[in-house]
Amino acid sequence: MAGVHSQEAIDWDRLRARAREACSRAYAPYSRYGVGAAALVDDGRVVSGCNVENAGYGVTLCAECGLVSELVLGGGGRLLAFTCCNHTGEVIMPCGRCRQLLWEHGGAELLVETPEGIVPMDHVLPQAFGPQHLDRPATA
Ligand code: THU
To answer: What is the pLDDT, as a whole number, of residue 3?
Structure first.
């Protein structure tokens, strides 16, 4: 897939539409704050997720959890571009925990849409802790 790594090749409108679609499925009866997330994978797939809340509030799954689960279940791959939105369609920042989740599967170069524009992941998670910090390499 030539050029998929360059920002011009990324169809951000398509990703935003997928995030909004995912958001429409959010299960957020407690916060009433639906979130949808979508990302482009390096093989051209688009993966997405919505938040799934729980009566045990702390058990809530962020939209990014579902997205990463779909990524791995669908054969893995690296995330190239990511966006997420709330129930009004506004672009929002992934929470701190989810930045760590995204780092694992996209690394420093993953492009993240923010309310201030599109930036690489290492701008929103500087000096990240990652696989390279562990004293043994990751195995599949
Ligand atoms: N939420 C996400 O799904 N992703 C984020 O990155 C930020 C927060 C959800 C969790 C909870 O269901 C709701 O937004 C309000 O915090």
So the answer is: 43
Task: Fill in the amino acid letter for 95.
Answer: C
Residue 112 lies in a domain: yes
Structure tokens at 100: 């760590």
In a domain, 53, yes or no: yes
Residues 6 or more apart in contact with residue 98 via CB below 8 angstroms: 62, 63, 64, 65
In this structure, the residues whose C-beta lies within 6 A of any atom of ligand 1 are 28, 31, 33, 35, 51, 53, 60, 62-64, 94-95, 98
Query: Does any domain span residue 95?
Result: yes
Instruction: Give 33 Cα–ligand 1 centroid separation in angstroms.
Output: 7
Ligand 1 atom at minimum distance from 98 CA: 6
CATH number at residue 25: 3.40.140.10
Q: Is 109 a catalytic residue?
A: no
Residue 13 pLDDT greater than 90, yes or no: yes
Average pLDDT, the chain: 94
Cα 61 to chain centroid distance, Å, stands at 13
Count of domains forming the chain: 1
